[in-house]
Amino acid sequence: MIEVSEAGLLRRRSVVPALLAERGDMLVVAGLGAPAWDVTAAGDHDLTFPLWGAMGGAAVIGLGMAIARPDRRVLVLTGDGEMLMGVGSLATIAVQAPPNLSIVVLDNERYGETGGQRTHTGMGVDLVGMAIAAGIPQTMRINLPGEVEALRQAIHTSTGPLFAVVKIDPESLPLALPPRDGAVLSARFRGALLGPAAHLE
């Protein structure tokens, strides 16, 4: 069930597990900060790659995965601040046009990692409009609980790339930390994706 805050906004810790439900072998990249905590709170997974740094890089990491593994669905879950820093990646994603890539921005209009300052999406900047202008063929705006399931289905079935913004409450939540060691995360992800071949290089 998708929860709504007193302010009438979707709550991130109910949206993220709903989007990850029945994920199968989908590859997931979680942008640094709250999105990484959200996917961990939903259940740590070997095929999830949470970022501890590289702000602005989540979408392009997902792009690389989608190109390298066209047989797998790839989902990037990131925040508005992180997406704004890497907004130029939308042009490259549109040009490369991987059909198996979905990017979902959890937009609370805040820089959660640096004190909750307002991002530009809280001042009228439209990330969906930017994605459309870049040429991304499928976009969605999610504001209501009943729209989340449609997004989940699109992530699994659309011929993308797909770009969606989910408006969420700017609440501060307890941390749910994934492993901190980048080498461990990388090795775990490679092992889960490649199996024994991960150890042949």
UniProtKB/TrEMBL annotation:
InterPro entries: THDP-binding, TPP_dependent_decarboxylase, TPP_enzyme_TPP-bd. GO terms for biological process: small molecule metabolic process. Signal peptide: none annotated. It holds the Pfam family TPP_enzyme_C. Residues 49-163 form the Thiamine pyrophosphate enzyme TPP-binding domain. GO terms for molecular function: carboxy-lyase activity; thiamine pyrophosphate binding. Keywords: Decarboxylase, Lyase. It comes from the Bacteria. Coiled coil: none annotated. This is Thiamine pyrophosphate-dependent enzyme.
